[in-house]
Amino acid sequence: MRENKFMTIYEDVVANIQSGQLRPNTKLPSENELVEQYETSRETIRKALNLLSQNGYIQKMKGKGSFVLDVSRFDFPISGLVSFKELAEKLGHESHTVVEEFGLIKPDEELRTQLHVTSKDTVWKVVRAREIDGERIILDKDFFNKKFVPHLTEDICRGSIYEYLEKEVGLKISFAKKEISVDELTEDDRHYLDLKEYEHIVVVRNYVYLDDASLFQYTESRHRLDKFRFVDFARRGV
């Protein structure tokens, strides 16, 4: 048996996924079944499955098997500041925003650290579930320093907060520091999102600044891991 037999298996499964023969969320046969199907060793099957997982074609779930991912995942730009409304319009898919929590809060110790505010400050808290094609796949938790955003309404939050802040308030949103991690699900994730059987979520934390370098917003944007592909453009300095 050729040493690159695992590549033949990998390419066969990829072709079946891309052609639609293996649809998203379909469970692959077990390792034992694949060993018999391809008449090869368990080690070869595991190499093929690992490569499929690394390249975003399947998700391996401990104790449950391997499941096909949706290869038509949405591109989410890492660089740049893009609102959900702008992203949804670019994707061309049906989208909807549900405001789950809205109001003014006194920041706890963790939020004071994230937003660089004090216990005397007041912060807008906005939690929104984002639907694309009828599935809730993003949970945005936004916190705005009231010093810079004196007025906000639930109706504004259903639309684009950035559009309101820039056009109505006149804020000049300039840049952001971003952190990306894969975290375990929280109770809010389970409550507000359509998560299927996933146990982890991709979290993009944004620290957003105005043009005078004032930090005015901290955001946790929580994405279902099978639906997004995080993309960026990099140029090597010489």
From TrEMBL:
<dbReference type="InterPro" id="IPR050679">
    <property type="entry name" value="Bact_HTH_transcr_reg"/>
</dbReference>
<protein>
    <recommendedName>
        <fullName>Trehalose operon repressor</fullName>
    </recommendedName>
</protein>
<keyword id="KW-0805">Transcription regulation</keyword>
<dbReference type="InterPro" id="IPR036388">
    <property type="entry name" value="WH-like_DNA-bd_sf"/>
</dbReference>
<dbReference type="InterPro" id="IPR036390">
    <property type="entry name" value="WH_DNA-bd_sf"/>
</dbReference>
<keyword id="KW-0804">Transcription</keyword>
<dbReference type="InterPro" id="IPR011663">
    <property type="entry name" value="UTRA"/>
</dbReference>
<dbReference type="InterPro" id="IPR028978">
    <property type="entry name" value="Chorismate_lyase_/UTRA_dom_sf"/>
</dbReference>
<keyword id="KW-0238">DNA-binding</keyword>
<dbReference type="InterPro" id="IPR012770">
    <property type="entry name" value="TreR"/>
</dbReference>
<dbReference type="Pfam" id="PF00392">
    <property type="entry name" value="GntR"/>
</dbReference>
<dbReference type="Pfam" id="PF07702">
    <property type="entry name" value="UTRA"/>
</dbReference>
<feature type="domain" description="HTH gntR-type">
    <location>
        <begin position="3"/>
        <end position="71"/>
    </location>
</feature>
<dbReference type="InterPro" id="IPR000524">
    <property type="entry name" value="Tscrpt_reg_HTH_GntR"/>
</dbReference>
